[in-house]
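Researcher: Before we compare anything, I want clean individual predictions. No alignment, no superposition, just each chain on its own. First chain goes here; please echo the sequence and then give the structure tokens.
Model: Echoing the first chain and its structure:
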Amino acid sequence: MQAPASPGTAGTRAGGTRAVGPALALLVLALVFTALGVWQLHRLGWKTRLIADTQAAVHAAPIDPAALPTGDLTPLTYHRLAMTGHFLSAGTTLVTGTSTIGTGYWELVPLAGDDGRTIMINRGFLPEGSRIEAARRDVPAGPVRIEGLLRPTEPKGALLRANRPAQDRWYSRDIAAIAARRGVAVDPRLFIDSWAEASAPGADAPVPGLTVIAFPNNHLGYALTWFTMGIMAIGGAFVLVRRR
């Protein structure tokens, strides 16, 4: 006949059973934390390549827009472009946005190039409260030379704020939609973020050269944080098992 378990033994078994659930939960968390750490390492590689590619593009010799390939221009993002021509002030459009100097508008104006092609130019940033009539009056009427960075079009709108062409409200630089609204024929794939214009700025001229080309890279720190949390979760599970 089997002897009944002592109260102390039964309590130990019950405590051990209760510890299994939390220990397993900690091990699952450790797997999740490790996966997040690995994901941040992938992000680190992507961000490192982005920074290197951007710096190489910004410091390369300017490209003539006539030499741009057909198709997707995303691989050429942030490459320098240079062109001469004259602005089509009637096509001026203000796009709501933010910059390093505050909130306001990006001023987009079509530039009819001397080579016959027309490209939308982001002349720069205007403060909140600026009026499109004043912006149009300030657009240079004579020949200009533009040098800036190639940026792909931004279709549809910004996060949670769709463009409203019928109301002339713009929250992203959707070149095809803006050109259709203004009745101008431009290359719909891109616009040029102007660094400077070879002409004297007017009183209400936008501020050029505000393209963000410095990207924070904190992914290694994030990865180490996730891995540390994973190690702590494994340690916690080990402690629970030892107590059992």
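Researcher: Okay. Second chain, same rules.
Model: Second chain and its structure:
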Amino acid sequence: MIVVHHLEKSRSHRIVWLLEELGLDYEVVRYARDPATLRASPELKAVHPLGRAPVVVEGGEVLSESGAIIETLLDRHDPEGRLRPPVGSPERVRWQHWMHFAEGSAMPPLLLTLVFGRIRQAPMPFFVRPIARRIADGAMQGFVGPQVRANGDYIESALRERAWFAGDAFSAADIQMSFPLQAMAARADVSAWPALNDWLRRIEARAAWQRAVERVGPLALLG
């Protein structure tokens, strides 16, 4: 039996979605975040030493890191290649690119957006607040914001060329890219990217996505 250790407001939502797309049986163990620190509950460290999610346990083996979990589950449970293009095809090259782009390029500026947003709102002495906000705003305007916009433009151009990230067929690359793009839509103005918005509507209309929402609730993000 596959067990998904699911942390609220985390990337583990897309692993549940993957399992629904594959039609696999699985169990979910839920964890809440500490309301003050937003860190995962200590119980999650009993499953994986870093205490992060997603974590999947199958046959006594502990799997972590979203991309690695997805590829391992596809190796074991998708021999027909429903969610992964054939090796050697142009679609496979694109698939591999977006599988790594999601966490390697898309997520870092979005995480910085969250961090600097929290710095602006953090309690601090009144005489420090203007300095902290000026630093945070300068970083957002000079570096983080342009990175988010550059990523958005790049993603928009790719989705204008083809319906899905790997090609004309939905694949696990779309599952992997879902979290950063949903985070982008929550933390940035995405109105200038109609293809990206259309892609978001289409993934959330999928039956497997709806089943994942029924199983673990709507996707929520740290704010």
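Researcher: What stands out in the second chain?
Model: The helical segments are 12-22, 66-77, 90-121, 129-161, 172-187, 194-204, 207-216. Additionally, The radius of gyration is 18 Å.
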